[in-house]
Amino acid sequence: MFQSKARITAIGSYVPERTLTNTDLEKLVETDDEWIVQRTGIKERRMAREDEFTSDLAYQAVRNLMERYDKSVDDVDLIIVCTMTPDFKTPSVASTLQAKLGIKNTGAFDLNTACSGFTYGLYVANGMITSGLNKKVLVVGSETLSRITDYTDRATCILFGDGAGAVLLEYDEQQPSFISSHIGSEGEGGKSLYCSNLSNMMNGEEIVDNGKFVQNGRAVYKWAVTTVPKGMKTVLQNASMELKDVDWFVPHSANLRMIESICEKSDFPLEQTLYSLVNFGNTSAATIPLSLDQGVREGKVKNGDKILLYGFGGGLAHAGLFINWTVE
Ligand SMILES: CC(C)(COP(=O)(O)OP(=O)(O)OC[C@H]1O[C@@H](n2cnc3c(N)ncnc32)[C@H](O)[C@@H]1OP(=O)(O)O)[C@@H](O)C(=O)NCCC(=O)NCCS
Question: Which domains, ranges and CATH numbers included, belong to the chain?
Answer without folding.
Answer: 6-171 (3.40.47.10), 178-324 (3.40.47.10)
